[in-house]
Design a protein that fits this description.
five-stranded mixed β-sheet, alpha/beta, six-stranded mixed β-sheet, 26 helices, binds iron/sulfur cluster, 594 residues, 15 strands, Glutaredoxin
Length: 594
């Protein structure tokens, strides 16, 4: 197919609808390798939008690029757990084999090698994306195999499938993960309950959103149903980008029926006809299987026009792919992305439940929340509320990674102690646990008696274990880099603050920091917390605060005794100038001037 035909096919696939701009660009890039000026011109003309809109989208999403990248685009996951599993050595092996620097494309255009944020393979890292296909468990042997395939220019479709095998690693299953749900069971149960009955059971269950905020799901569904307007939407947030989180990947693999029927049950309850499943770009490999499941649901009358047994209820689900922007996990940013725009968080209120997708009432629920909703409609709200704690009902799925013998997925009733999880996963020497990713909290052994629950240790699911060999300062520095990389740039406190924070942490790591930098970090952290527009900026200072409060000696040993140390060694920096001018006399040295 010619380039023009590929671009046109992507446009036609989405009816030239500007709300699908991100999907159109993803598809065009998938065919052509990059967003060329021709693609931009053509798409802008056919969608009747300014070219600048396309440019801003390409600049915003890490997976889109308007310069030719390698025919093979290698992106190594750079989460702290990947580093612990040896990602740095594998990166160097790739760079040496291809003769490129990190972030560069080889001169012959064959390959580019770069880093990316967490790819959701923390339990089987180091992770790698090759042209958006995920490869786990990188080691020297796998790197050499991939290098050979790339150098032979083997089409990705011909690569050994063993390279792409991703394990579910379910170590402890409870109500949700114990066994697959019989197709149709949740939807039949919802229809039998009736629209009001579903909402009543959801409220009775006291199910709270599993994405982190913990908002009562029944109230959200009721609010959406009661909001004025003729059209409503159900959005499933499968953009789990929090480093250390991979449970939604496993739920979409093992319990896709639950997630999809949870969306349909929500649609039935609130009166929506369309569901949008937004999946992070790193999980592109899940798409084909999910499309097949949706097709099977349509074929059996569980999706599409006139769903069996519910006269007047039509509901269908479409899949949207993200493109490498962590901030899109925030619900209003995700809606912006669904509308084909850069994923910048909206000013709230209004909340999505009244004005969400296309400004219409919208329920945005996390993958796990929708899967849990099937438990509620099948077994009833009271049974669901009988598990867990009073304020945190049901079970919680945790993504466990790091220094433990059995990393993977663990499902427990809410209220489980950290010590219990540590024992189950074989963490023999846990020195600290990072719960809920970089934006969460670092807990030390004196807190291991605490419980996973909204009223105690709240978490979206990440549970990263670190033993006594690990240095929390370095982990906090990795997290600071992550926030600086992922800030969407919309508001100044976060855009500038996260960069300054990362630079200051680097300065301290290089031995050039003093208490001045610590005070600056404290000031920045407070400023970001108070004035940032969304949760990313508001929580970006958490790792520094934990490092300073809980690991003070390790932090202080890096500080110089002076009140201030410059970031640059001026004397050394002037060396090349002295050499160029053949000056080595005393006046050419700074000390001589003072
Ligand atoms: Fe964007 Fe950061 Fe502001 Fe959130 S806090 S809107 S991520 S710049």
């Amino acid at each position: 197919m010619s380039d023009l035909a590929s671009i046109e096919a992507a446009i036609v696939r989405y009816n030239a609808n500007p709300h699908y701009l991100l999907q159109i660009l993803r598809d065009a890039q998938g065919e052509l390798g990059w967003i060329s000026p021709e693609t931009t011109r053509r798409v802008a003309a056919r969608l009747d939008i300014p070219r600048t809109r396309i440019d801003s989208l390409v600049r915003f999403y890490a997976f889109l690029h308007d310069t030719p990248a390698g025919a093979y685009r290698l992106r190594l996951s750079d989460n702290v757990t990947d580093r612990m599993q040896g990602s740095e050595a594998q990166l160097q092996r790739f760079l040496a084999a291809f003769g490129v620097a990190c972030g560069e494309t080889s001169a012959d255009g064959l390959v580019s090698v770069d880093l990316t944020s967490c790819t959701g393979l923390c339990d089987q890292g180091p992770g790698l994306l090759v042209n958006e296909r995920a490869i786990p468990r990188l080691d020297a042997g796998r790197v050499d195999e991939i290098v050979g395939l790339v150098k032979r220019r083997a089409p990705l479709a011909d690569w050994p499938q063993t390279l792409f095998e991703i394990a579910d690693n379910v170590r402890r299953a409870d109500a949700l993960l114990a066994e697959p749900m019989k197709p149709g069971r949740a939807l039949d149960a919802a229809i039998a309950l009736g629209r009001q009955g579903v909402i009543d059971e959801m409220k009775r269950s006291a199910l709270r959103g599993r994405g982190g905020a913990g908002f009562p799901t029944g109230l959200k569904w009721e609010g959406c149903r009661n909001a004025p307007g003729a059209e409503r939407f159900i959005v499933c947030n499968a953009d789990e980008g929090e480093p250390g989180t991979f449970k939604d990947r496993v739920l979409l693999t093992r319990q896709a029926e639950r997630v999809l029927e949870g969306m349909a049950a929500a649609g039935f309850a609130v009166g929506a006809r369309r569901g949008l499943l937004y999946i992070r770009g790193e999980y592109d490999y899940l798409r084909a299987t999910l499309e097949a499941r949706l097709a099977a649901m349509r074929a059996s009358g569980r999706l599409g026009v006139a769903i069996r047994g519910a006269a007047g209820f039509d509901f269908d689900i479409e899949i949207h792919m993200g493109a490498g922007a962590y901030v899109c996990g925030e619900e209003s940013a995700l809606i912006e992305s669904l509308e084909g725009k850069p994923g910048r968080p909206r000013i709230r209120p209004p909340f999505p439940v009244t004005r969400g997708y296309l400004d219409k009432p919208t329920v945005v629920d996390n993958v796990e929340t929708l899967a849990q909703a099937t438990e509620v409609v099948i077994h009833g709200g009271a049974a669901f509320a009988g598990r867990g704690t009073r304020a945190s009902t049901g079970t919680k799925v945790l993504s466990v990674s790091g220094d433990c013998e059995r990393p993977g997925i663990y499902e427990y009733p809410f209220g489980v102690r950290l010590s219990h999880v540590l024992e189950d996963c074989g963490a023999r020497d846990a020195a600290f646990v990072q719960v809920s990713g970089p934006s969460g909290a670092c807990l030390t052994p004196d807190e291991f008696h605490r419980a996973i629950a909204f009223e105690d240790v709240a978490t979206a699911g990440a549970f990263m274990v670190f033993d006594s060999r690990r240095d929390y300062f370095e982990i906090a520095r990795n997290f600071a880099r992550f926030f600086a990389h992922e800030s969407c740039g919309f508001c100044t406190p976060c855009r500038v603050g996260t960069s300054l924070q990362s630079d200051l942490m680097d300065k301290i790591a290089e031995g050039r920091g003093s208490h001045y930098e610590v005070n600056e970090l404290m000031r920045l952290s407070e400023l970001m917390r108070r004035t940032s527009h969304c949760g990313l900026g508001q929580t970006a200072g958490n790792p520094f605060n934990d490092a300073w409060r809980k690991f003070r000696p390790a932090f202080e040993k890096r500080l110089q005794a002076r009140d201030f140390a410059p970031a640059i060694d001026l004397e050394a920096a002037l060396g090349p100038a002295r050499a160029a001018t053949h000056r080595e006399d005393a006046l050419a040295h700074l000390e001589a001037e003072t």
